[in-house]
Amino acid sequence: QLACPLDLGCHSVELVRGRNLVKATLLQNLEKSSQVVEDLALQVRATGKASSVSEVAAKIDAVTAADVKKIAETVLKTNPTLVSYGDLQLFLSKRMFWLPSGRDEESFDLKF
Q: Is the pTM of this model over 0.85?
């Protein structure tokens, strides 16, 4: 569920709450030295350098409602991919998946 529907935009309260949640998660993930090393390695691999916590927090604080809307529109353009292992008939018979409103199983390319 999106806290800020794409057609309405994000209100500043939701945007601040989202930023704070991401920063809190970042800080929680840095409580163990193994997580710090892993995070530094991922940063260097992705960007070529390691950023300090304050640099990352500043980048998080710089995220705008327009940024959130742009990413959401990009992500929601296509149907999600679902991968399952095991008895797929059981999976489908229990309706253990979500379909967008107005869609049914026949409108998806389900491969077995």
A: no
